[in-house]
């Protein structure tokens, strides 16, 4: 699923996601957990402000971001 990403450009001109839009809902990036590069893309694994974990992929040739994976946080159970 394609997604609109708000980035911060660092001193090496590498873009780091700070937030992204899921429809009308804005999800802030709480923490970047990992990032890795391929030949023509970059992946960023992160925790969102909605409690979910995401992997976002940036396609360099198309200049587009998409969600590769979304994992919801487990529901809290009262004991």
């Amino acid at each position: 699923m394609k997604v609109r990403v708000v980035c911060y450009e660092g001193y090496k001109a590498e873009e780091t996601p700070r937030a992204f839009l899921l429809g009308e809902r804005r999800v802030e990036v709480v923490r970047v957990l990992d990032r890795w590069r391929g030949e023509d893309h970059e992946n960023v694994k992160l925790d969102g402000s909605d409690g979910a974990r995401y992997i976002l992929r940036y396609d360099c040739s198309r200049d587009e971001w998409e969600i590769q994976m979304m994992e919801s946080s487990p529901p809290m159970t009262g004991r």
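The radius of gyration is 13 Å. The mean pLDDT is 86.
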